[in-house]
From TrEMBL, chain A:
Places the protein is found: Periplasm
Similarity field: Belongs to the prokaryotic sulfate-binding protein family.
Signal peptide positions (record): 1-22
UniProt protein name: Sulfate ABC transporter substrate-binding protein
PROSITE patterns: PROKAR_LIPOPROTEIN
Major place of residence: periplasm
InterPro entries recorded: Thiosulph/SO4-bd
UniProt keyword Signal, yes or no: yes
Keywords tagged on the record: Periplasm, Signal, Transport
From TrEMBL, chain B:
Domain named ABC transmembrane type-1: residues: 74-277
Location of this chain's protein in the cell: Membrane
Protein name, per record: Sulfate ABC transporter permease subunit CysW
Family annotation (PROSITE patterns): ABC_TM1
Membrane topology, as annotated: Multi-pass membrane protein
NCBIfam families with a match to the protein in the record: 3a0106s02, permease_CysW
Membrane-spanning intervals of the chain: 28-50, 70-97, 109-130, 150-170, 211-236, 256-276
Keywords, comma-separated and alphabetical: Membrane, Transmembrane, Transmembrane helix, Transport
Subunit text: The complex is composed of two ATP-binding proteins (CysA), two transmembrane proteins (CysT and CysW) and a solute-binding protein (CysP).
Origin organism lineage: Bacteria, Bacillati, Bacillota, Bacilli, Bacillales
Amino acid sequence: MKKGIKKGVLLGIVVAMTAVLAACGSDSDAKSASGDSGGESKGSVELLNVSYDPTRELYEQYNKAFAAYWEKEKGQKVTIKQSHGGSGKQSRAVIDGLEADVVTLALGYDIDAIQETGLIDEGWQSEYELNSSPYTSTIVFLVRKGNPKDIQDWDDLIKDGVEVITPNPQTSGGARWNYLAAWGYALHNNNNDEAKAQEFVKELFEHVPVLDSGARGATTTFVERGLGDVLLAWENEAWLSVKELGPDKFDIVYPSESILAEPPVAIVDKNANKRGTAEVAAAYLEYLYSEEGQTIAAENYYRPTLDSVKEKFADQFPEIKLFTIDEVFGGWAEAQPKHFNDGGIFNQIYAPK
Amino acid sequence: MAGSVPMNTAKASVSRNQTTRSTGAVKWILIGTALLVLLWLIVLPLAVVITEALKKGWGVYVEAIRDPDALSALRLTLLVALITVPLNTIFGVAAAWAITKFRFRGKQLLVTLIDLPFAVSPVIGGLIYVLVYGAHGWFGPWLQAHDIKIIFALPGIILATMFVTFPFVARELIPLMEDQGQQEEEAAVTLGARGFRVFWKVTLPNIKWGLLYGIILCNARAMGEFGAVSVVSGHIRGETNTLPLHVEILYNEYQFSASFAVASLLLLLALVTLLLKGWFTRKSSH
Amino acid sequence: MMQTGVSKRGVLPGFGLTMGYSVVYLSLVVLIPLSALLLNSTGLTWEKFWSVATDPRVLASYKVSFMTAAAAGLIDTLLGLLLAWVLVRYDFPGKRWFDAIIDLPFALPTAVAGVSLTAIYSQNGWIGSWFEPLGIRLAFSPIGITLALMFIGIPFVVRTVQPVLQDLDAEVEEAAATLGASRFRTFWRVVFPELLPPLLTGFALAFSRGIGEYGSVVFISGNMPMKTEIAPLLIMSKLEQFDYAGATAVAIILLTISFVLLLLINSLQRWVRKTAR
């Protein structure tokens, strides 16, 4: 019997090893191919851009544009691979070893988290202009056609009988901007009284019947399920929803003021240095600020930051008063623990009495 | 229990006509109710998938499926199923044999441990591999030093899928083989048959149904798994995206119809396996 | 298994081989990775564990998860028995399709299942709109979660009962019937005891799958804290804060409770097997 067990154990180990080795083998083939290309300065190079959810079309266009630009400039072919997912999840993946050359995420907090592990050098946010946010957005209201509940500003959201749809800021990075926008508005309208702001936000979330886990889920709830009177959404996603899901069914309402959502970009220094892609990665992000990059961003409903492009798309992006997270909240490093982490203000809204 | 002992076995090859002997009314009431349940519980949601997939017409549907990213996701999904299902099948048969044909201490514990992956949230099912093989995991630094990728590459996806589909075959076989006891095998051994032959000639014909169901379930789940795989995949388009991940990404990009079209492709794959099963059934009943 | 008392290890071969192999494979794929959760690789301390474990929101989510999974498991057990019975015992047109469709819930990515089910049960959906006037909300309530879990779990029950039922010889029933037992009595005394173990297994599987399920539930549950928030969602929410320790704590508690429940069900099944006569 003893001998039998030994045999079984041995067999188990052998099978497991072959499985893992076979899998690794097939993987390392792919790996070596990309490794070669990373080493040569001419020829071709490969970048991995780890981004968040609805940026696919933006980067699909931009990647083509950049590849053309780079080939003309340096005579080098560049292929850019894309990865999309929830911003926080993508950040964790990079921390856990996904070899991104650049990250383009929804909020600075998720890039800070990568920096803390040493993959990104300190001071990433001042490496590029405008807080390393080449394009921006803001939080707007999506309402049903004709705005039947007459929702014009943040105050209207807490009127009796108004139902608000927003994703859960604790599971959706993008939705944190929604919450902060509401908070900032309330703060400014109550002489910066924090207690009043907290009360406003609490009341706002009492008008939320369903807290979806992500922005897309919230949009579906609002658009397809017909729940709620107003959806809090990023401007670009509101435009996408209107375009994809029904131009005749929804209106976009701009509140009197809102937050400037800054989705930042950064080079993952350690990976880029290791793979020998630092130069092209830097150029890749730099080019986002160019006329061409900005136009592509604007075409995908992100607010451009370059004046000439801004002018061209002025109709699409109405001027409203925008405040930044640094001005009002002292940056993500302060806002995240205060508002969203366990024991933060958001949790208190739902604490049992 | 005692009553069951002599009655299982070879003659259990189910002859359909013999079993249809409940009289009219009860039979049809039961069939009718069952059909309703099936329509409501399973067919209805699937119908939604199909209608959503075709909402924007065939053009969008075909385009979504012919997209190179979708095709590479399809290849990856098939490859993963091809590796995980046989491995888990071998394990399932071995475990069921050990558990049902012998008595030993801690049997319940072992059975429960085999069940465990079902009780683990898929998210955690992925996370544990990150904790072991991720950059900050146990083997992370070593793997990085040797430039071996497990997480965010094929091996990670395979491991996570193996974890999620781990219990299927064993779980199908254990109740069945327990029910069948071991006299037949014992008789065969007494008559001089040995080792693998006993399994092949005596046990396998008796468990083929359970085994088949186990494999089919395992395969369906291996192809459809989302949660665990999504944690370890890295979502690189055209490279580490499986079909379910591709579905989610399309959905998140406001491409509702395309995403449901790809989902219906998964249903189609499952139907193919079931057709294979039908073929197998017919072949073996002759 | 009463007659094996004679030969503890019996005359059958292969115990060592199969046992050794099973244990190694189990360890490599399941136990060692799972132990990563327990072995403090995330900086989980006792204080942290305790504060997470006693957080009212976490407790409420456990309640939601376990109640809905248990309800779904029970209903699935009943419906699954019916489906399996009809599939094995009767011939009718379209049976092959009937049989084929049962497995499809597994093949559908859970998120798609969630979106589709929400479409059906929400207030403007095919079924939900009938219940809305009655003041019953199907989607975005615990009922919705239960419905989603039923969809996810039904193949487990059908597919565990089916092979046993197929193997069960009709002759015994016929004999019982010939001897004058009524149909119900035959079922209750002869068939049911045979089916109880697979039914228990099916329930255990559907139930435990339900506890862990995330993808389909988040769309239909509404995720309201304290009310319809499930435990796996809290894990996600903690991961989003890069709070690996908190996420692990929730997972460990979930895992422990499920493990104990599964162990109980498995022991019960053994007991049923022994006493059913």
